[in-house]
Amino acid sequence: MASLEAALDKLREERNALNIEIRRHQLRNMPLEVLSLIFTFTFRPYHAVPEPAPWSISAVCTRWRNTVISQPCFWTSFDIQFPHKGITTFRLETQLARSGTQPLKIQLLCEDNKYSARERSIIEILAQYSVRWKTMSLSGPASLYSDLQGRIRHLPLLRKLGVEMVHESREAPTLAIFYNAPLLQQVSANRSWVPYPFWGKISPLSMVLPWSQLLRYCGSNTWARHLYSTQQCRQPC
After folding, report:
1. What's the rounded Cα separation, in Å, for the pair 205 and 167?
2. Which Gene3D superfamilies does UniProt cross-reference here (predicted)?
3. What is residue 15's predicted lDDT score, i.e. its pLDDT?
4. Phi, then psi, of 201 in degrees rounded to 5
5. Under a CB-based contact definition with an 8 Å cutoff, are residues 66 and 96 in contact?
6. 3-state DSSP assignment of residue 218
7. Measured between alpha carbons, how far is 81 from 68 in angstroms, rounded to an integer?
8. Which pTM value belongs to this model?
9. 125 and 111, same structural domain?
10. DSSP-H helix ranges across 129-185
11. Band of the pLDDT at 200, cuts 50, 70, 90?
């Protein structure tokens, strides 16, 4: 019994010594401003990891969690891939709530021509926050854009847009859902063009855009379709 008590006393001493060392550690006493600055280097483009940085950081300790959750700017980037990879509607809504009113940067990649009802619900949630989109990169089948059609009315913050639409039509479809974007300046549309008869991969695409305000446009298309796109009426057809 005495030996057991002695062992417990030794463990308590070691625990107390570790607690003292932790309290003295500079990282623990680091100002929140400096700690937050360090955290920014765990995000893209500085560091790309499978698990989004804010979720990883918030799982380290209470102080780090409180620091990350208290700052909406850490929750504004979304990298979503279909088929479903690590994203649920609950997690998406949680991150959107933590992002406050900050502009959003979204990258959405759909690898299949069809996707599940759960993944469609993610599209619906993102569309509800379209007024906060600042940067949007979309890649997927025509059905993806059909699901967005009618759910997007106004894109007041959108500045940069990338679109890759996979379709099998011999006629290049016209996409008009991104017209109402008063700050839009950069657009990329189906740059990886594969000409007919190899369509069915990334094919030409025409877009109704606020052309007069664009500073940069990149796209793969026939010359006639480029002219057709730029001559689209000011109001969506």
Report:
1. 9
2. Ribonuclease Inhibitor (3.80.10.10)
3. 84
4. -100, -125
5. no
6. strand
7. 24
8. 0.74
9. yes
10. 142-148
11. very low
Q: Which amino acid is at 151?
A: R
Q: Any alpha helices (H) in the chain, and if so which ranges?
A: 2-24, 26-29, 32-40, 53-58, 62-69, 89-98, 117-128, 142-148, 223-230
Tens digits of per-residue pLDDT, 23-72?
Answer: 666 666 777 778 788 888 777 666 655 556 788 888 888 888 888 999 89
**Alpha carbon distance 45, 42 (integer Å):** 9
Give the residue from 237, 173, 177 showing the smallest Cα distance to 205.
173
Strand locations in 63-195, DSSP E?
77-82, 104-110, 133-141, 160-166, 174-175, 186-189
Instruction: Quote the number of domains for the chain.
Output: 2
* 158 in the same domain as 58: no
Say how many Å lie between the first and final Cα of the chain, rounded.
Answer: 87
Cα torsion angle, 82, 85, 88, 91, sign: negative
Mean pLDDT of the chain: 78
pLDDT at 211 over 50: yes
Judge if 65 and 81 occupy the same domain. no
Q: Which pLDDT belongs to residue 156?
A: 95
**Do 175 and 189 share a domain, yes or no?**
yes
